[in-house]
Amino acid sequence: MKNYLMSISDSIISKQTFEEILQCNEETVEYGLKLSEENVKEIVEIRSEALSKNGRVEFGGGIIKQIISTFCDSPYISQYNYIETIEELIETFYYYKNETMEEIGDIELINLMKGYFDNECQGSLELLRYKYLDTIAHNIKYGVSDYLNVDGDEEL
Amino acid sequence: MDNYIIDRNDTIENLLSKEHYFQSLLQVLHSNDILNNKELENIQVQILDILRETANYYTKAESYSVRVEVAEQIMLSIYYTIGSFLKGKTSIKEKITLIKENPMKYLFSEGEKVLKIKIEESKELLKNAQKSKLKTSNYAYIDTIDYGIPLFFIEYDSRFAAHETQGSIDYPLAIDEMDLVGIEYINEYLKKIDFENQFCSHFDSYEIENLLKSFDKNSDHILINIFELVLTNYLGCMLLGKGGITLDITDIERRYLKNKLGKLKEEEFNEVISRIVEDISKEFTINDINFINYINETIYKIMPNIKKNIEINKLENTFITFKNANENLIRYEDGESLENSRFKDITEEIRDCDKVENKIQIIREEIHSLRDLVDVLGSDCIFDYEFIEIFKALDDFEISLLLKNIPSDSVMDADYGTESEKEWHEKIKEYLDMINEEKKSKIITESLNIIL
């Protein structure tokens, strides 16, 4: 059933949300960012792989849209690194969705990622993953109540 | 809909899985060209819509995605819910019409109603089973009715995991429908427990307990079906023409049964047994057809064993002779248990005592039931050597009563108590090893003869 669920949710996303993702261009063009149909296919493919790799199923493609519209105004994203960054953010998102044990809702996690990416990480995805998100995931796993405190003064 | 299979209800029903009813129904209808590819795909898409909506409730709308295992569980739950609704329809034709002419959302919400009714009905059945519970010391029986099934209702999640059978159901029924799951299994289980209790209620609990002990001296701690043993011996008694509600079959009577049944041909044997089943139904005025069928099914399950044991001359394995028939069994009526709050105060008082003599004094003055005494011993308020001192202060009969509450030697590995319960179980054995053999043997024999 695992494969069945994954393939079905994939087939639905490609039909239902392909257009919606393309429509994001209307919002992102203001920041000089644009996706071609080919780019959307590639991103959808990356999303499917990330979901499969992390053992998750998604109904609809809401996350791609959400990531694009949250990150499009970042000063660290321009057309030359746009697709690559979005793809990495999608993979990062699903990985940490599991690692944070689903304690953080989708929108909250994406907003957190955006906040660190633009400020503390200055556009570095490595820093975002290995310093900030890893620490939050660690805090959640070890029952730290203030799990967003990434400065190390743990409060159990 | 002019497919020949539509008119063959039984043929189709036999092909269907009881656990994955709706999935197997779709498969059968598709492979018999009653549902075409397009219709099947349409059904699957609609079910995915329900899955999406239900997953949204599951994540409280905070997440677009869920783990595959969660989606899989919700999906099975949706199929199960729809299946529960369709199972209630009598003809296959009606089921097909419902599937073809209604949105899946409708079948799903009807299924939810069916499950809700089943849950309420089952809760009533449980209350009934608890009321009509047999007076027996069989641990699995008591634990399943008092703890295992109530736990099911606490844990059961009809929205996201309707197909799962939570709880702790260890007691084996005479005929167990292991291919049912979720509330359907519990509902069926409780109906059968009710039949079994009703049947056994015609016999004195002393008689039943004697039968169980004669079957196996560890009968309190093994997984046996009480009803099946009672029915088997009663069947023997009926064959012997013994009236009343006795269950004992003596050695001579068993030899007579062997001769009588051994001479019969297959058909004659079956006929004699069927007649006895009719007599049993009349004797106990059983009119419920489901109840009669259940007795019949159990008899059919027992029959091959009777035949086999006649052939290999081991009929004593089927028709039990009471081992304690000539001994003095002691029926123990427990004293009144303390209120929970009072019990808690007493255990705290005991825990605070420095001297074991004071602990003994409190137990002597405040504890007046075996149940409370057992609970005190397992409440982390008595430690180490103190157990032995307390056992020394109790009389032999009290020790015998306590022995009834611990797993016997041969099944000691399966002690299902907490750590502190296991501790006093060990200590009482230590105490028995300390006293002289004669006294020890007297206590153990007395314990075997006690019926709680």
The quaternary state of the protein chains shown equals heterodimer
Can you tell me the residue ranges of chain A where pLDDT is under 50 for at least 5 consecutive residues?
none
Order of helices and strands of chain B: HHHEHHHHHHHHHHEHHHHHHHE
Largest sheet: spatial strand order of chain B = 2-3
Explain this structure.
- The complex is a heterodimer of chains A (156) and B (452).
- Chain A is mainly α and 156 residues long.
- Chain A has a domain at 2-100.
- Chain A contains seven helices and one strand; from the N terminus they run αααβαααα.
- Chain A has helices spanning 2-16, 18-28, 37-53, 62-71, 79-99, 106-118, 125-141, and one strand at 56-58.
- In chain A, α2 (18-28) packs parallel to α4 (62-71) and α3 (37-53) packs parallel to α5.
- The longest helix of chain A has 21 residues, at 79-99.
- Chain B is mostly helical and 452 residues long.
- Chain B has three domains: 4-115, no CATH class; 202-325, no CATH class; 331-451.
- In chain B, α6 (104-131) runs antiparallel to α7 (139-155), α8 packs parallel to α10 and α17 crosses α19.
- The model of chain B has no long low-confidence stretch (mean pLDDT 88).
- The interface between A and B is medium-sized, with 25 and 19 residues.
- β1 (56-58) of chain A pairs antiparallel with β1 of chain B.
